[in-house]
Design brief:
Blueprint: H1 13-23, H2 27-32, H3 35-57, H4 63-74, H5 82-106
Helix pairs in contact: 1-3, 1-5, 3-4, 4-5
């Protein structure tokens, strides 16, 4: 029997926004990585987005937790500048927090 890939559910608009924010400005670094590392980076990115979506469901969203998740993901990229990684994590976390809070206020 041939293994068939699981059908993917359509991505929510929030998920698409979160993925876009994560990849923004660091996509060239993802492409620089070897193919096996790219797979790991993408899988870790999906996990990061999953965890942020789970946090969105809670009443209190902690920016420190979002920064830690993004930092862990960014450290997988072939970037040698720790200051850049930290700044990117903070910028992305602020953008994500803004979007999540907007969505939370709409519901």
């Amino acid at each position: 029997a041939i293994a068939r890939p699981k059908p993917q559910l359509p991505k929510s608009p929030l998920r698409r926004q979160l993925e876009t924010i994560l990849a923004e400005d660091v996509f060239p670094y993802i492409l620089e990585a070897p193919p096996d590392q790219q797979r790991n980076i993408r899988a870790a990115g999906r996990t990061t987005v999953d965890q942020i979506e789970i946090m969105k469901a809670s009443t209190k969203i902690k920016i420190g937790r979002i920064i830690k998740l993004i930092l862990a993901w960014l450290k997988l990229l072939p970037i040698n500048n720790p200051y850049y990684i930290e700044q990117e994590a903070k910028i992305k976390a602020e953008q994500i927090l803004r979007i999540v809070e907007e969505k939370h206020n709409q519901s």
